[in-house]
Amino acid sequence: MSSSINYFVHPTTSMPIQVSLRNLPVFESFYPSLLEQVTGSGRFFCPHHTFSFSGMEESSKYQLSFRFDRMSDNKFQFKSNGEWEVDETKRQSKSEKEDPIFLHPDITSGSELMSRETEFIVPITHRPEVKNTKHLTSKAVALETCVKYQPVLIVAKIPENGQMGIISQEFKFDCLAFMAVCRYRNSRVSAIKSELNGYAKSADKRRISRMNNKDKQRTPASDGRICEPCSSAIHSLPRSTVSSSSSRTPISKPTHSKFPRTLSIPIKRKLLSSSLS
Question: Which neighbouring-strand residues pair with 19?
Fold first, then answer.
């Protein structure tokens, strides 16, 4: 898939940056199920993506971004066996060739990025009128439902001292692949997200309490449903951009890890002709 930013290769420049996904055990907990993400407006991607960096130039400035690559030209459908399969009868209705990009709101020095963990809090939407642009610092990323995406982390070094472009390096973590959905289809994914999201659990308790009070006045014709399936895992979270490693609660690593704890895959080493600053 092509990116919404034009690249050309710089033959003499390299960026030996290493990236670690700090909350890898959280994403591993969904395996073997495919991660799903509800795209309703006002939502944020959950779990958040938390990274640590090494190998950066301390005095240089870096722009971080996420590109969401479509993994198929066709849409997917959820089968009764609990698996997502390509729907050969339905193709994506995207009007543009570009994959959506989210820019991290901060341009940060290498020394600061290497001193603490950096968290991506990505607003998302399903609204087609929200146009995907090259600079999504404040707008939500528009995702199409029943489409499988692969997030790609882009680390771009901001030019200085007369340099002509932005040098970038890309990293892909297979465990971050997900299906965009209007509601969660896999009950296991929904249950894990509900456990991860304390806000949703508290909201559920308040919602159930209110509904129990209304049950006393409910007519016999009522179906008794409290909410739509998986609503407890549909949530909005407070925005914050950087989280210190000393303040985070450790998460136990599963016994059998399907993904390496540190995965650094420089896909391309490129020079950007478009400025992200």
Answer: 53
pLDDT digit string, tens, across residues 9-36: 333 345 789 999 999 999 999 999 999 9
User: Which domains are seen in the chain, by residue range?
Assistant: 7-272 (2.60.40.820)
Give the whole-angstrom CA distance, residue 116 versus residue 111: 9
- Report whether 122 contacts 141 (CB < 8 A): yes
Residue 232 CB partners (closer than 8 Å, separation 6+): 190, 194, 197, 200, 201, 203, 204
pTM for the full predicted model: 0.65
The secondary structure element, H or E, covering residue 191 is helix 187-196
**Dihedral angle computed from the Cα positions of residues 6, 174, 177 and 129, in that order, rounded to the nearest 10 degrees:** -10
- In the block, tokens 């301390």 appear at 58
Q: Are 156 and 63 in contact (CB under 8 A)?
A: yes
| Structural tokens at position 9 | 């290769």
Residue 81 to residues 78, 85, 178, 182, 240, Cα–Cα distance (Å): 8, 10, 18, 20, 38
Q: Round to whole Å and give the CA distance between 37 and 16.
A: 32
Q: How far is residue 26's CA from residue 49's CA, in Å, rounded to a whole number?
A: 10
Question: Do residues 64 and 155 touch, judged by C-beta distance below 8 A?
Answer: yes
* Of the ranges 86-90, 179-183, 208-212, the best mean pLDDT one: 179-183
Residue 214 · residue 227 · CB < 8 Å: no
